[in-house]
C-alpha cells in the first residue's frame, strides 16, 4: 500500500478547495439551504461541468472521470470543509454505484452519463429510515428491513402487460408505500427505491428505478411547488415528495409517498427468476455501496471537523481574557491538542477505508469503480464512519464552548458543524452500533459474532425466512 497521494489527487483537492472558498462561505451556505432545492443549483452545475464531481468515481465509458472511492473521499473532505449543501452523496455515493453495479447495459447507458455530468441527480430511497441497515453499516441487510410485507414499508407488485393475463412473466412494476429521511429526495430525478416483493413465500428486497425528471430543470420553483403538492408529471401522479424539516438544513431530506407508482426493476433480465431479481445480489451490492458511502460520509465529517477546529484555534488566539489570549492558557491548549489527535486518527481511518473500498480495481477496468462486491476489508467502513462522526461531534461541541457566549447563539457558524454532527449520527448511527457492526464483521467476538449460519461470513446474504432463533442469537451476539 502506497500511503502517498498522487499529484492528480492533490490537484483534485486544491482545485475544489479554491472554488469552494470563493463561492461557498457560511453566508452562501445559509442562503442556499433556504431555497426550494436546498442547495445552490448554479454552483452544483459548475462543480459538475468544471470538475466532473458527480462522475468522479464513474468509468469514462459512462462520461465519468474514471477515478475511485479514494478520489471521491478526498472531494467529500473538501465539501465537508465548506459544509456544502449538495446532492453529491445521494448521487455519487448512493444512486450511481447501485446503477453501475446492478443495472442492465441499457439502464447504465441511459442514466449514468447524465448523472455523471450533473444533468440529473439521483438518490436511494429506503423505507422506515433504515438506510444504515440497508447499507449493512449497523446490521446485516439480509432481513425484512424494506417492509417484509407489513405496513410502513414499500411493496412492489408485478402487473401484466396490457392485453395479457396476469402472471409473473413480463409486464411492469408498481410501488406502494412510503420512505422518510431520503437524502435530496424532493429534487432527485432518478430514484432508486428499495421495495419488498414476492409475498411471504418468495420474500425478497429488490431495487427499482423511478424516473421523476419529466419536468424541465429550468423551472426550479415550479418543480419544487409541484413536488410539494404531489402534482408529478404524466405517469407519476401517485408520487408525493415533501421536503422534511431537519435540524441540519445542509443535508436536505424528504418523505416520499408512492401510490401505485410505475417503476422499472434495476437490472432487468440480469439474474432474474420468474418472480423477479436476485435478492442476494441486491444485498451484496448494497453492502459494497455502503462501504463507499461510509468512506465518503466519513470524509465529509473529517473535513467539517478540520475547519471547525481551525476556526476555533484562530478565535482563541484573538479572544483575550485577563489581559492575554485565551489560547495561551494551558487548559485550552490541552483541549485543542486532544481534538487534534482525535481528528488525525479519524482522518487516517477514513483514508484507509476509502483505499480498502477501492482496492478491487479502478473505474477503467471493473464494472464498479470500487471493484467486485465484497473486496473491502470487513468492518473498516463502519469503523471509520464511527470514528469520524465521533471526532466531528467532539470538535463541534468544543467549538461551541470555546467560542464562549457567541458560540451559543444559533446564528453562529459553529452551529453549522454542530448540527451536521448531530444529524449525521441520527441518519447513519448511532456510533456504538457502527462499532458493534464493525466488530461483528471482523469476527472479534467468539461464539458466532464473526460467523453465522454454519460458518457463513457475517454480512453475507441469508434467506429471509431464517428461523427466529437464528435472528435472536444474532441480536444477542451484536
Automatic annotation (TrEMBL):
Spell out the molecular function terms from Gene Ontology. oxidoreductase activity
Q: What is its EC number?
A: 1.-.-.-
| Domain spans labelled Acyl-CoA dehydrogenase/oxidase N-terminal | 6-119
The protein depicted here goes by the name Acyl-CoA dehydrogenase family protein
Q: Where is the Acyl-CoA dehydrogenase/oxidase C-terminal domain?
A: 293-440
A Pfam family annotated for this UniProt entry: Acyl-CoA_dh_N
Q: Family per UniProt?
A: Belongs to the acyl-CoA dehydrogenase family.
Q: Which organism is it from?
A: Streptomyces sirii
Q: Where is this region: Disordered?
A: 453-478
Required cofactor names: FAD
Bias-annotated ranges (Low complexity): 458-469
Q: Which InterPro entries match?
A: Acyl-CoA_Oxase/DH_mid-dom_sf, AcylCo_DH-like_C, AcylCo_DH/oxidase_C, AcylCoA_DH/ox_N, AcylCoA_DH/ox_N_sf, AcylCoA_DH/oxidase_NM_dom_sf
Amino acid at each position: 500500500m502506497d500511503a502517498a497521494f498522487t499529484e492528480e489527487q492533490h490537484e483534485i483537492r486544491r482545485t475544489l478547495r479554491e472554488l469552494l472558498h470563493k463561492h461557498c462561505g457560511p453566508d452562501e451556505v445559509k442562503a442556499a439551504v433556504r431555497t426550494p432545492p436546498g442547495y445552490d443549483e448554479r454552483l452544483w452545475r459548475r462543480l459538475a461541468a468544471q470538475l466532473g464531481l458527480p462522475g468522479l468515481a464513474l468509468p469514462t465509458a459512462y462520461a465519468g472521470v474514471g477515478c475511485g472511492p479514494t478520489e471521491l473521499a478526498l472531494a467529500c473532505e473538501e465539501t465537508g470543509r465548506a459544509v456544502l449543501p449538495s446532492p453529491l452523496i445521494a448521487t455519487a455515493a448512493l444512486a450511481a454505484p447501485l446503477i453501475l453495479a446492478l443495472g442492465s447495459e441499457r439502464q447504465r447507458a441511459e442514466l449514468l452519463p447524465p448523472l455523471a455530468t450533473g444533468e440529473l441527480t439521483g438518490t436511494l430511497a429506503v423505507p422506515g429510515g433504515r438506510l444504515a441497515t440497508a447499507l449493512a453499516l449497523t446490521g446485516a441487510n439480509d432481513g425484512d428491513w424494506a417492509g417484509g410485507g407489513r405496513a410502513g414499508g414499500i411493496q412492489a407488485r408485478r402487473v401484466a402487460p396490457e392485453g395479457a393475463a396476469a402472471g409473473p412473466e413480463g409486464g411492469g412494476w408498481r410501488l406502494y408505500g412510503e420512505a422518510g429521511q431520503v437524502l435530496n429526495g424532493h429534487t432527485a430525478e432518478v430514484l432508486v427505491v428499495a421495495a419488498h416483493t414476492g409475498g411471504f413465500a418468495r420474500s425478497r428486497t429488490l431495487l427499482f428505478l423511478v424516473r421523476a425528471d419529466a419536468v424541465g430543470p429550468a423551472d426550479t420553483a415550479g418543480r419544487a411547488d409541484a413536488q410539494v403538492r404531489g402534482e408529478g408529471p404524466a405517469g407519476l401522479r401517485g408520487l408525493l415528495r415533501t421536503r422534511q424539516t431537519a435540524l441540519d438544513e445542509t443535508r436536505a431530506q424528504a418523505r416520499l409517498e408512492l401510490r401505485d407508482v410505475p417503476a422499472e426493476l434495476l437490472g432487468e433480465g440480469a439474474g432474474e427468476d420468474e418472480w423477479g431479481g436476485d435478492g442476494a445480489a441486491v444485498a451484496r451490492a448494497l453492502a459494497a455501496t455502503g462501504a463507499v458511502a461510509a468512506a465518503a460520509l466519513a470524509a465529509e465529517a473529517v473535513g467539517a471537523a478540520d475547519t471547525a477546529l481551525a476556526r476555533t484555534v484562530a478565535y482563541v488566539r484573538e479572544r483575550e481574557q485577563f489581559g492575554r489570549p485565551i489560547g495561551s492558557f494551558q487548559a485550552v491548549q490541552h483541549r485543542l491538542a486532544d481534538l487534534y489527535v482525535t481528528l488525525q486518527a479519524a482522518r487516517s481511518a477514513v483514508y484507509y477505508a476509502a483505499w480498502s473500498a477501492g482496492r478491487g480495481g479502478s473505474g477503467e477496468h471493473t464494472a464498479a469503480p470500487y471493484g467486485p462486491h465484497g473486496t473491502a476489508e470487513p468492518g473498516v467502513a463502519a469503523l471509520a464512519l464511527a470514528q469520524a462522526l465521533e471526532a466531528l461531534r467532539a470538535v463541534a461541541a468544543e467549538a461551541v464552548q470555546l467560542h464562549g457566549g457567541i458560540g451559543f447563539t444559533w446564528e453562529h457558524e459553529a452551529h453549522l458543524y454542530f448540527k451536521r454532527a448531530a444529524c449525521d449520527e441520527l441518519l447513519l448511527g448511532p456510533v456504538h452500533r457502527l462499532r458493534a457492526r464493525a466488530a461483528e464483521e471482523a469476527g472479534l467476538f467468539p461464539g458466532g459474532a464473526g460467523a453465522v449460519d454454519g460458518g457463513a461470513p457475517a454480512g453475507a446474504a441469508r434467506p429471509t425466512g431464517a428461523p427466529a432463533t437464528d435472528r435472536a442469537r444474532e441480536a444477542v451476539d451484536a
